[in-house]
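Input/output pair, single chain:
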Amino acid sequence: MFTYQHTNIDELREQVRKAKHVRKKIELSITLCNAIIERNTHGNRVYAELLEAIDFAKNGATLASQHNFADLELECIIAQARCIGNCNNFAEAISTLESAQQLLHTTTPTRLLAQWHYTVANQLYFLGEYSKAIHHYTDAMRYFTEVNNTEYIEYCCSNLGASYREINEYSKAFQYHADAIAMAQPRNSPQLGGYYVHMAADYFMLANEPKAFEYLNLAEDFFIKHQQEQALPRVYINRAAGLSHAGKNYEALQSYFKALDVLNKFDIHDNKPRLLAQVARTYEKLQDYDSSLLYFNESMMLAEQRGDKTLIATIQEYVATLYIKLNKLDEAERLLKAALYFFLHTEGKFSSTAQVYKHLSEIAQQRGKYKTALEYYQKYHEILEIVREHERAQANKEAQHRLEVERAAREREELKIKAAELERSLEMKQGELTSLAIALSQKNELIEKLRIKVKELSESKQASKQDGCKTMIHEIEVLRQSSEEQWTTLQKQFESIDSGYQNRLLHQYPALTQYEIKVCLLMKLNLSTKDIASILWTSPRTVETQRYSIRKKLNLNKDENLYSFLVKV
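Output:
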């Protein structure tokens, strides 16, 4: 699933265009989309390719809808959402996935339910909706477990760990990442290096820096050994952040530069602007302001080339704080106002907006404009209150969601235990019923043998033997009649296990006789023809005749199994 590294995308494009059969065309479109996503997941992203993939997915979904291929339509929508998410439009990706919810209520294969939840979770994670992401990752993992997809169970564990770390539940994050590593190590998963990086981040959060650096070393060794050098910047950036936090800024710079070397070697641009900004901030900590400005300018240039407005505004704020230190207040104010304009017109940028107002207040205060400084500070304080209220509301919301998830998990577990108990009880009752039926068969068989033997003796010419045999025959007949009472008991027990079965059978197939209903009940117990014959005081040949008659009345063809059919009624 989702793995297309060796697919020739150009060939796939041509195959999609040439495909005559509708289903084949849709399937090829899905394969093409996923191949493009795979190629654009690591390294630089070619947005033109991703937009092309979105068009193929849309066309595939339209064709699938027109021809009532519900499963393929859902698969196309999932591929479309993944492409949109890779273009960083996570909210739009979720909206696309939610538009397919009605398809989930059809006979959706479990593998597609797993894919849908996994894709929704990924978009929620990047939107910062971590509690919701946890809910969907948990559902995805359950469905992946049902289809025994160990690779994606492992991915879910890793992503659950990352989500729990974001909401500061570090022990849960640690456990899920440990589970991912435990699953990945035996099969030497190509993702193992990434899991080591995650584990290192957990240890940093748990203030265990020696262990964090140990796992970063494991990740570095893994990436080099498995020729995954493009992933090395993750190691170097995390190591640099840890070193910087420990006040080892010169060592942090060395690690940042190692990351830059890898990005330059493989001509990767996506992460470079942010990395350059981190280098600039590290130089600022070292009070090397000239080098800091140099790297901020390079970062800004790349961000402008990419059109990353969020990063541009963030760098403007960083540079402005540096200019304040250098007493270049005009330049600082200009950059802060440019950043402020973006943050005010962008949803969810409260914290950044508050920081800009705080810096503007500092500038006004340094200029002796105390009234302006107070106004800016009041705005800073007002927004800070909004941020705190939002954080409190979000924390409450996440806590409530976690409670709901935990309650649902408990309920599922309780239902699972109850279902297992009921199943065991049903199996026990069915076993008892079958044993009773077989005992009745054996008893009737013995009575019949005795009846035949006594009848033979009664034909003897000795009068005393004849009288004795007549008495015994009378007693055997009484026993045969008691077998009818046992049959009634058998029916009652059958009804206690499968209430209304006889009525359902008669309602659906009114042509069946009462005798045939008896045969059906005994067949549902999976008894042999011989046992059924003994219970009903008839011959195996007669039972076979009844079976033929029943099959005819049930309209079964010769390939359909009568027992399997009766079990499903």
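Residues 1-6 have pLDDT under 50 and may be disordered. The CA atoms of residues 141 and 380 lie 43 Å apart.
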